[in-house]
Amino acid sequence: MTRARLHHTGISALISAPSTPPTTLPLSRILAGYNPRRYFDSRKHGELVASLRLRGMLQPILVRPARDADDRYLIVAGGRRYRAALEAFGPDGEIPVVIREMTDQEALEAAIDENDVRDDASETEQADAAVRVLAACRDDRAEAARRLGWSKTKLDRRLALAGLCEPVKLALDERRIKVGHAELLAAVPADKQEKALETIIASGLDVGKTRDLLMRVTQSLADACFDKKECTTCPFNSAAQRALFETHIDEGHCTNAGCFELKSQTAEMIRFEVEECAAKVARATGAPDDDHGEDADDPDDVGDDDEHDDAIDGSTPRSSHLSLDDGAATKPTGNRPPAGIAPIRGSGAKTQAQKTTDIARSIANRTREVREAAWRTALARALAANSANAHIAILVAAMTGTLCEIKAETLKARAGLLVGTSFPELDFSAKIIAIRELPDAQAMTILSAIGAAYAKDVASFDHVADLAQAFDVDLRATWHVDKGFLEHFSKDELSFIARECGLVPHMGEKAFARLLGSKKNDLVAGMLNALGFAWAGRLPGAMTLDGQYGPPPTAAAREAQASIPQMAA
After folding, report:
1. Which of 14, 37, 43, 505 is surrounded by the fewest CB atoms within 10 Å?
2. Per-residue confidence (pLDDT) for residue 337, from 0 to 100
C-alpha cells in the first residue's frame, strides 16, 4: 500500500472509528466548521430531514472543541446531517456527536476525506479543497497530493478548475454543464467565462460544439508578432490544457484574446518606434551611400589609398574597450554616454590609434538613438514578462519621483484591455472596486504593463540602463545586427565593426580587404552573408551599456538564460 493510501486510510479511520464514545450536544452549541461542500441537493436534503424526524440521527457527527468560543464545538464531518437536524429538531434539539481534539490541518483533511470518500464531492468542491490543502503545504504539490491521497495528475486537474468563476462552478455543481464544459472554460480568462457559460446553456451546446466555439475565438500563436517565450508557461496556452485535460482545444492557440491583443499592439508599437528611430538617425547623420559608384570625392570610398590600408593592417586595435569620457555630443538623455571615447588632445598628424578613436566616436554618435530605443524595448519586454521585477521598477520610480513620467495616454488607452471593457466608463469609486476585485494573475499583468510603460517613457536613459543592468536584461533577445543597422555607416566604420565583432579574423585580412573595395551595398551584403560566420549574439560596443563589445554567449550561458522562465514559473 502506498504512503498516500496509508495516509488516506488513516484519515478515514479517524472519522469512522472514534476511540471515544459518542455523547449528545444541543445543536445551539455546534458551529459549522470548514466544509468542502459548495452545493447541497435540495431533494436529498428533504429526504434526510424526513428520515431524522422519523428515526432520529443514527450516526454521530464528528466535532472538535472551538478554540475561540467557550463550550462550543466545530463540525469536522457531518455537515449535511447537521443542516438537516436544524430543520428537523430546531436549535434546541440534541444530536449524537463524537468529540475529538484535532489540529486545523487534521480537521481540514478529515473534512475533505469525508466528502471525497463517502459521498463524492463535485470537481469544483475538490478544487477549492485542494487550494486550501496546497496553501497549508506551502505550495508543495507533492506533499498536498500525499495528504489528500490523490495522484499528482488529479491534484493538477483540480487546481486548474479552481480558477473557474463562481457561476461556472455552481453550474457544474448543479450538473447544468458537464466536466468537459468546465475543463474548456478553465482555459478562458475568468472575466470571459460567465458570458461563455450563458451561451453554452442558452444554446444547449454540448462539449464538442463548445470546443468548436472556443476554437473560433482563440488566437494562433504561430501567427503572433511578439516574443512567445512567456507563453510557454502561461495557463492560457492551449498546450497547458492539453497536458491536463482530455477535453481541450487544439495545441498552439492562445485563449486570452485580451493579452494576445495587448502583446501584439505593444510589439507593433515597439517595431514602429525602432524603425522611426533608425530613420531619424539616418536623416540626422546623413549616412553616406556608395550605391551610385566609386566617386573619388566620396570620403567613404577610399579605394586603395593609405587610410584604407591602415584600416585593415595589423596595427589597428581589434576591440572597442575605450574610455567612457566623451563630450556632451555623444551623451544620451541622461548622463551615461554610450561607447564614448577619450577626447583627443595635441596637434599634428593623427596616429592610427587616434583615427580608430575618431571612428569609434562616430559610430557611437550614429547609434545613440537606435541604442537607446533598443534598450528601452529590451527592458520593456523584460518587465512585461516579469511582474516581480516590474513591481520593483515601479516602487523605485515612485520613490524617485519619476513614475509620473509615464505618459497619461500610455496606460489609459489600454485600461479597457488590461482591466475590463467597461472600466474606462466607470466613475473613480467604481474603478477602485474593479481594481480591488481583480484576480491576482490579472493584477500582476497590469503591474507588468506599468513597468513596461515606464521603460518606454522615463526621460532619463540612465534609469533605463540601471534597471536593465539590475535585472540582467540581455539586448540579444530583442536586437541584432542587420542590414538596416549596417547601412547607417561609412566604410571605415563598417571596417571597425567587422574587426570588433570578429568578422575580419574570420575572413582573413586579404579577403576582407577585397570585400572592402567593393560598393557599400555589396560590402554590407558580404558582411552579413560571410560563409561560416554568424552575427547572432554579437553586440557592437556602441550598442552595449558599457561600451564593451558583447561576444556571443557560451552554450552554458544560453542554457542558463533559457531556464530563467521555467524557474520564474
Report:
1. 43
2. 47
What is the structure's pLDDT at 105? 76
Distance CA 209, CA 268 (A): 34
* 174: in domain: yes
Q: Could you list the residue range(s) of the whole structural domain that residue 396 is in?
A: 376-475
130 and 9, same structural domain? yes
pLDDT of 56 > 50? The answer is yes
**What's residue 504's pLDDT?**
92
- The DSSP annotation for 224-237 comes to --S--GGGGG-TTB
In a domain, 158, yes or no: no
Q: Locate all alpha helices (DSSP H) within 402-554, ordered by sequence.
A: 408-412, 415-418, 428-436, 440-457, 461-470, 483-486, 491-500, 503-507, 509-516, 520-528
Question: What is the arithmetic mean of pLDDT over 277-303?
Answer: 49
CATH number for the domain spanning 64: value is: 3.90.1530.30
Structure confidence by residue, pLDDT tens digits, 445-489:
888 889 989 998 999 999 999 999 999 999 988 888 999 889 888
- 224-232: long-range pairs with CB below 8 Å, 24+: 224/254, 224/260, 224/263, 224/264, 225/264, 225/267, 225/268, 225/271, 226/263, 226/264, 226/266, 226/267, 227/267, 227/381, 227/385, 227/477, 227/478, 229/385, 229/477, 229/565, 230/384, 230/385, 230/565, 232/565
Same domain assignment for residues 547 and 399: no
434: left (phi over 0), alpha (psi -120 to 50) or beta: alpha
- The dihedral formed by the CA atoms of 210, 216, 219 and 222, expressed in degrees to the nearest 10: 110
- CA separation (Å) from 554 to 36, 395, 538, 559, 560? 52, 34, 12, 9, 10
Pair (36, 24) in one structural domain: yes
What global pTM score does this model have? 0.49
**Count of the separate structural domains present in the chain:** 4
Q: Which of 152, 174, 202 is the last residue of a domain?
A: 152
Residue after which a domain boundary falls, among 237, 256, 276: 276
Return the half-sphere exposure (C-beta side, CA atoms, 13 A cut-off) of residue 542.
Answer: 28
What confidence tens digit (pLDDT) does each residue in 336-351 have?
545 443 443 444 455 7
Confidence of residue 2 (pLDDT cuts 50, 70, 90): very low
Q: What is the reported pLDDT for 171?
A: 86
Q: Are residues 293 and 272 in the same domain?
A: no
Residue 24 lies in a domain: yes
